Amino acid sequence: MGLTYLGTITIFPRKLMETWPTVDPAVRTLDHVKVSLFVAALGVLAGSLGGRADSKDLMRTVLFIDEET
Hints:
By secondary structure, this protein is an all-alpha fold. The protein contains four helices and no strands.
């Protein structure tokens, strides 16, 4: 979460965070923490879903759908 917080405050320009579409300006530290927590949660979710697919054949089956099988 700490790394995503650093990424949030360095990658997203302040001007962009002031003009998020349909959302209030996200310029406070609490807003940065919320974005960081959300991104960290997405990373954990993606890691947990991808961690199950440790077989190369499973990944090929999922990525390259073969109609013949």
